[in-house]
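Two records follow; treat each independently.
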Amino acid sequence: MKKLSVTLFFLLSGFLAISQTHDLTQGLVAYLPLDGSILDQSSLSHQVIVHYGPTHAPDRNAVANNALEFNGTVQALEIDYASTNANALEFGNADFAIGFWVKKLSSTSNWDNTAAISKWNSGAYAGTNEWSFGIGGGGGANSDQPQFTVAMADNNNYSVKSFNNDIVIGQWTHLMAVREGSDLSLYMDGVLQNTTNIGTGAVNDAQRDLLIARSFSGSYFSHAVFDDIVIYNKALSASEIAELMVYGVTTGGQGSGLPSSGLWSSDTNSNIFYKSGKVSVGVEYNNSGYEFAVKGKILAEGVKVQGFANWPDYVFASSFKLRPLAEVASFIKANQHLPEVPSAKEIETAGLDLGAMDAVLLKKVEELTLYTIDQEKRIEKQNELINDLLKRLDKLEKKD
C-alpha cells in the first residue's frame, strides 16, 4: 500500500495537528457536496444537469447516500456554459483551486476512467480547451496517476501530475489542484505532489460546459464515486487544504451551516470535540439512541461508565428479599440462565450493555455472598448439633 487509509491517517494525526482557523466559504464559486442531491451549495447556486442518474452511495465516512457513484458508461453531471453565473468558472489569469474526494472503482484503460472534472474538448483541437482534472492518464493511456492540465490562451498546454503515486482502486483519495501566480500545483491526500510553472498568462476561455465523470466528446466516462466537489476563485494554502479535508467547508471553527460542513471544533488547549450529531465508524449510521458506534474492535487502557444511580449495594439492605435457592433452581431449569441475566439469544440480538451487565453480575455476586453466609450459618448450627449428638453418644457408650 502506498498510503495509509485516509480516514485513519487524519483521525490519528490530522485532528491532533489541524485546527479550524480558515473561512473556507470565501472564494467558493461551486460546491457540490453530493449528499443526497446534486444541488450546488455555493452562493452562486449553479444549475446542475444530470445525465442518466448516477446512484447514491456511502461517502468516505460510510454515511449512506452522501456521495454519488457513476457507472463509467453513460452517467455524468454538467453545468452549462450558458447558464446563470457559469462565467464564475472562467479563471483567466487569476488564481483558483479545484478539489474533490474520489473512490475510483475501475482502473484506467485506454483513457477510460480518467475523467473527473473538466472544461475540455480534446488535446488535438487547440483553442477549444480550458482545464481538465483527471483521475488517471498522468502516466499514459492506462495509468491511474492523477493529473491536472490547463490550456492557455497562447495555445500552450501545461500539466502537473502526482509524484509517481497512483490512485488506489477502491480507496478514497482527496485531490486538489491549485494555481497561484505562475505555479500550478497538485495535492494528493493533502500532500504536495508536484508544481509546474505555467507563467502568468490567462487560461483559455473556450466557452466549454463543466463536466463531471465524463469527457466532452462523450467517449470516455469514469467508474467512480465522487464527493464534496469544490471550486474556488482563489488559491488555497496547504493548511487550508488540510483543514478542508478534515472539517469540510467551514467558516473557521463555527461551521458554515452547509450540508457537508465539518462539525469538529477545538479549544485553546487543542482538545477536539464534536458539537452535535452522532458518530459511526466503519458502519453506516444505524445507531439510533446511541452517540457513538464502531464496527470492529476498540483498544483502550480503561473504560469508565458513569450514571448508575442504583448500584446493587441494596442487596445487603435488611429489606432485601433473597430468592430461595429452590426458586432459583426452578428458574434455571425452565430458562437455562440466571434470573435477571439476559439470555444468550437476547445478547446476540440486542448486544451487551457493559454498565448494566456489570451491575447485574455484581448483584449476583452479592446474592451469592448472602447465600454463602447463610450456608455458613447453617453449617455452624449443624456442626453444633453433630458435636452435641457425638457427646451424647459418647456418654451412652461409657454407661455400657
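The next record belongs to a different protein.
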Amino acid sequence: MTGARHDYLRPGSLEEALRLAADSSRTRFVGGGTDVYVQFCARPERPDAVISLRSIAELVGIEAGDTFRIGAMTTVQDIADDEDVRSSLPALARAAGVLGTPQIRNVATIGGNLCNASPCADLPPPLLAYGARAEIRSPGASREIALEALFVEPGRTSLAPGELLAAVLVDRPAPGTRAIYQRQGRVSVDLSLASAAVAIGLDGRTCTAARIAAGAVAPTPVRLRAAEAVLVGSTLDKETIARARAAAVAAVQPITDVRAGADYRRHLIGVFVARALDRILAGECDAARLPHRVPAPPTAPAPSRGDALRGPRRVAFALNAHAVEVDVAPGARLVDVLRDQLGRTGTKEGCGHGECGACTVIVDGRAVNACLYPAVEVGGRVVTTIEGLEGPENGLSTLQRAFVDGGGIQCGFCTPGMILSAKALLDGDPEPPRDRIARALSGNLCRCTGYVQIIESIQHAASRAAGDVR
C-alpha cells in the first residue's frame, strides 16, 4: 500500500461521508483498516477512493442504558476495556479481548470487524448470542435489522450501495443471563478455526431462554437454533447438554482447508457448546475469565479533524516530542513515511500484514502496526518511534538498557517493536506480572525465539525504573 493508487477522503460528519459515497460508485468506507489494507496488498483492483470514518465523532463510543449502543468506529480494545460491557456483556468483552494482537485491537473497529463479513470473525458470535441489531444509515434514512441479516456470504454484507453501519445495538440481558464465548486457533493470535457463544437464561435449573451462535463453521456466522430448541423449557442436566451438543454438531457446515479439517471444526463446536453449558450449570460465566483491562492512555484521543481533500496533503504531527510536517500521498502507510521521508529507520517492516509487530510504533499512547496505519491519520497526533526513547545524557533509556543487559536484544530486527510494545504497557502499568507482559507482546514475533530473555528484560526494567521508562 505504498503508492497513491486511490484517493483517501476523511469526512468530518456522517452526512458528509454518505454524500461522498453517493458521488461515486467506486468508493469504499474504511474503519480501522486492519483487514482492508491487507486485502489491498493482495488484490490489484482498488476503489477510486476510500472514505475513512475515523474523524466522525458520532460513530465512536459506547452508550450504556437499557440498550447498549456501540458506535461502529469504537475500537475493539475500547470494547474489551469498557466496564459496562465487561459486567453486562462479558462474552462480547472476552471476544474483543482475544481478537488479534494488541496492536490490531487498538485500531480495529467493531464496524470493520462486522462489515468485513469474515465467517471466522470473533465479534459476531457473541453479538448474535446477545440478540444484537445493526443500525444502518443512508442519505436521509435510518433502519435497524437483526445483526444476523447483515451477513450474506464470505466478504459480503446486505448493505446497499451508499449505506453504512452506524452502530450495533444490544439490549441489556435479563437478570440471571449467563454467557460464554470460546474459540480455537492454531496460535493465540490466529484466526478462529471455530468459535461459539452460548447465552442462557435460567430459572433454577430450567432453561428459560437460549441463544447459541457459531463462527468459522458456515459461510456466515450462524445461530444454532436446533440446539437452542433442545434447551428451552428443559432442565439443564447432563442428558440435556448431550442432546444440545449433538444438535449443534449436526447443524454446522464447516469446510476443510489448509488450516483445519471439517470434522475437527465440527468436533470443536460440540466441545464448545457442551463445555459452556457445563460451566453455566456450575454457576460460571465469562465475567470471571476476562483478560486484564488495559489501562487507557493518560488522555483519550479525540477523533482527528476530518477533511475531504483529494490527492497528497501536508500532515503535521508530533514525532518523538518534535513537531514535524510532511507531504503524504493518499495511499502512504505510516511505516513508509517514517522510514523513507523522515529517516526513522528504527521502525522495521517484516510481514507488511500486521502479524509480526516489527513495525510497532506508539500513536497517542497505544501500540499500533505502522504497516497498516494510514500516514494521513497521524495528523495532530503524537507518534513515538524507537528513536524517541532516550535516557540520561542522550544515552539508552532504562527499558533499552534492560534489553541489552538481559540479552533481550538478540538479533535486533524485532527489538524496536518489542521495546515499544513494552513501553506502551509500562506507561500504563508500571509493575505488570509476567502473564500481562506476555500478553502485551503477543503481537510481536521474535525470530530468535528468545521470549524468556525478553520478558525478563521488561521485568528488570520495571524494577529498575520504578515506573520511569522514558
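Discussion point: The chain has three domains: 7-52, 62-289, 393-470. How would you locate this feature using only the C-alpha cell line?
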